[in-house]
Amino acid sequence: MLNLKVKAKLVVAVVMIIAVTMLISSAIVSFIIYNQNSEASNQMLQRSATILRDDIAILGDSLLSNARQAATSNDMGTNLEFASSMSYEEGESMGMVSTYQSMTGGIYNICLTGNIWRAAIYNGKNELSGFAVIENEKRIVGFPRTSDFLVSMLKSGEKISGDSWKPMPRFDGFEKKYPGNVPKKEGLSFKEVGGSITLTATVPIVSAAINEQTQQAEMVQVGFVIAQYRFDTGFTRRLSKISGNRIGIVTSDQTVIGDLDGYPGVKQEMFDAVSEAWKFQDQAITLNDLTLKEESFFQGLLPLYSNNEHIATLVILHSMNVATENTLQIVKVLALVSLGCIVFFFPLAFFGSNSFSRPLEELSRVLSEVERTGDFSHRVSVKSRDEVGQTSEAFNFLMDALQEAIGNVNNVLAAMAEGDLSHNITGDYRGELSRLKVNTNSSIVMLGQLMSQVLEASQQVNTGALELSRSSQTLANGTTQQASTLEEVSSSMAEIENRTRKNSDNATQAQQLTNQTINIVSEGNQQMGAMLQSMQRINDSSQQVSKVIKTIDEIAFQTNLLALNAAVEAARAGKYGKGFAVVAEEVRSLAARSAEAAKDTAELIENSIQEVEKGVQNADNTASMLEKITEGISQSNTLVNEISAASVEQATSVGEINDGLTNVNNVVQQNSSISEESASASEELSAQASRLQEMMSRFILSEQLTQEAPIALLEE
Q1: What proportion of the chain, given as a percentage, has pLDDT over 70?
Q2: Would you state the pLDDT for residue 696?
Q3: Which CATH class is domain 233-319?
Q4: Which strand (E) or helix (H) includes residue 694?
Q5: Distance between CA atoms of 134 and 127, rounded to whole angstroms?
Q6: Per residue in 387-406, pLDDT tens?
Q7: What's the CA gap between 432 and 443, in Å, rounded?
Q8: What phi-psi label fits residue 262: left (phi over 0), alpha (psi between -120 and 50 degrees) or beta?
Q9: How far is the C-alpha of 468 from the C-alpha of 686, rounded, in Å?
Q10: Side by side, which strands form the sheet with 309-319?
Q11: Residue 279: enclosing H or E segment and its boundaries?
């Protein structure tokens, strides 16, 4: 039965080793390959996200460039300023139609060449002035009138002509009134427009104007251009082809743009809130897994925000099928290799187990008998000369030696149990058994000598321990009293030192506060001097302003005269000069208001000059008082410095005395502790010596052992 068990274990062990090795290898290889495929897929998603960012950045640069061109083409600033100065009906007789058609025609051509979905022009009043929309084969170009729109409906390849303009009662593409503030600078942003996600560029429109104050030409903003690129299915398919992954867009209402049939949608809670400084180029990609129509994907998400609000998500999908198929193929190959190894090694393990298991059966049987009965007379009969046979023969020799040695040791120990130390172990032994013989015999001799010497030494130790206990107790009592007295003195000195140090610290703080006060007063003097200089300069400036006001008054008087002359000339011109007469009247009114304002300002300046002179006198008085305060604080600072130095020296001396007392106290405390420990040890020693003497009196020694010389250990 044992043979079968050993053989079965050997065979099973070989099979299990092969199976476990191949199983672990398959698991490790599969795990490594899967992780490598996952890492490669994530890297591919990262590259696709980079391609998306770069492509949208290029689209943004192109969109801004085209919007700038639209804001400057066809003299856009001048035309928009002219169109904004009056209503459409008022300007129709002055060529307003051609102006609007020129502006809208310009942005239409730019939309065609720049792949722009739609664009619009707004004036400085946030009013719509023109638009162009290109959607598939449909093109709409137009501008608003008072109650309707004038548009040109075109097909692909058609050009704008004079006959193509037709009235349209309503157009919902752009609002007539821009809902937000007028953009003051160029900008790019993502917008959700009518269920579509767009990249929107805004560029200001400027025009030259005369500054009434400087009479110089300056560039001022008269409106702005809006250009929008729409992210449609063509955009997603183009990037899918470039990146090799499926790319789509999911809007905030879960509308899917692109090849993402059956997509479950995106939860906004997956993304963190963003600030005003959000940039799409800095947006990190979110990686996770997704199952779509029973197919697994590695997924990458890039959220889009508009005014801190999530409006859409760019979705990138990479199929897991390739990674899964590669892993399964490797697992199949490893499984076949494992099966082949088991089939090959199984017969070898079965036949090789016989030569190993039969000798072990005999050895196991004898060991079981020895363990069961405790009889060392059993022997193994094995004729093989291999390692198992040699082990069996060595086992027999070991049993012979152990049986003899154990018998001799038992005889000696039995005599020792009865107090007989005259027996020794005889016989020829080797190795550890020889050492056992020598050590046992030496122990018997040593034990006899030890008993004799211990008995004598215990009597002497008992006498000395009693005397040592009495002396130690007296020393401990005196040392304890001395330590208590020194501890009280040390505590008093520590209290004195703390008070001295506290006085020194207070003196130092007083010195620091005095120095700070001196610095503050000095700075106040400097600030007062600077204030006096500033008030003097204000006084001088007020004098100069008075002169300027007089000059403005003279200019207003001259302007009034010119306005009167202009009114006279306008009256002579009759109906052609009515507009100029209105301007002359306005200029005359402005001149009168300027003269009145100059008069009021001159009176205010005179009052300010008087108040400044009073302030200068008050500042001089304050400066003299600050100088007196500075002298008194300097004297107090000198006295505080002397007090601080004396306190520091006193604190140092007290600290040195306290340190000395602390050292003495530590030594006395240590001595007291040692004395108490010595007294306790002496009492314990005396008790142990008495007990040892009682125990030794139980032994009976032979005359030979008592007459031999003491052993070296006891002498030491």
Answers
A1: 75
A2: 65
A3: alpha beta
A4: helix 578-696
A5: 22
A6: 666 677 677 767 777 767 77
A7: 16
A8: left
A9: 9
A10: 256-258, 246-251, 309-319, 295-306, 286-292
A11: none
Closest CA to 207 of 196, 191, 195, 223: 223
Gap between the Cα atoms of 545 and 537, Å rounded:
12
Q: Which residue intervals of 697-716 are DSSP H helices?
A: 703-707, 712-715
The pLDDT of residue 470 is above 90:
no
The reply to whether 438-696 shares the fold of 233-319 is: no
- Dump pLDDT digits (tens) for 92-124: 655 677 888 888 888 999 999 888 999 999 998
What is the pLDDT, as a whole number, of residue 56? Answer: 93
Contact 198, 229 (CB under 8 A): yes
The pTM is what? 0.47
As a whole-number percent, the residues of the chain with pLDDT over 90 amount to: 14
The CATH number fitting domain 1-230+327-352, selected from 3.90.1570.30, 3.40.50.620, 1.10.3210.10, 3.30.450.20: 3.30.450.20
Can you tell me which residue has the tokens 């009056």?
Answer: 86
According to DSSP, residue 385 is labeled: -
Edge-to-edge strand ranges of the sheet holding 149-154: 165-168, 149-154, 138-144, 128-135, 118-123, 217-230, 196-210, 187-193
| 47-64 average pLDDT score | 93
Contact between 637 and 514 (Cβ < 8 Å) = yes
The token pair at 390 is 């040699």
Rounded to an integer, the average pLDDT of 630-641 is: 71
The two structure tokens encoding residue 549: 């006001």
Q: For residue 715, what pLDDT is reported?
A: 43
Please give the CATH number for the structural domain made up of 438-696.
Answer: 1.10.287
The DSSP output letter for 420 is -
Q: How far is Cα 306 from Cα 197, in angstroms, rounded to an integer? A: 10
Amino acid at 225: V
Query: If phi over 0 gives left and psi between -120 and 50 gives alpha, with beta otherwise, what is residue 351?
Result: alpha
Instruction: Identify which of 73-87, 214-228, 418-432 has the greatest average pLDDT.
Output: 214-228
Asked if residues 210 and 217 have their Cβ atoms less than 8 Å apart, the reply is yes
Other C-beta atoms lying within 10 Å of the C-beta of residue 370: 16
Nearest to 629 by CA among 496, 520, 498: 520
Q: What residue has token string 């919902």?
A: 172
Q: How far apart are CA 258 and CA 133, in angstroms?
A: 22
Number of other CB atoms surrounding residue 245 within 10 Å: 24
Contact between 398 and 410 (Cβ < 8 Å): no
What are the extents of the domains in the chain?
1-230+327-352, 233-319, 356-417, 438-696
Q: Report pLDDT for 351.
A: 60
Grade residue 231 by pLDDT with cuts at 50, 70 and 90. Answer: very high
Mean pLDDT to the nearest integer, 221-225: 92
CA 697 to chain centroid:
80
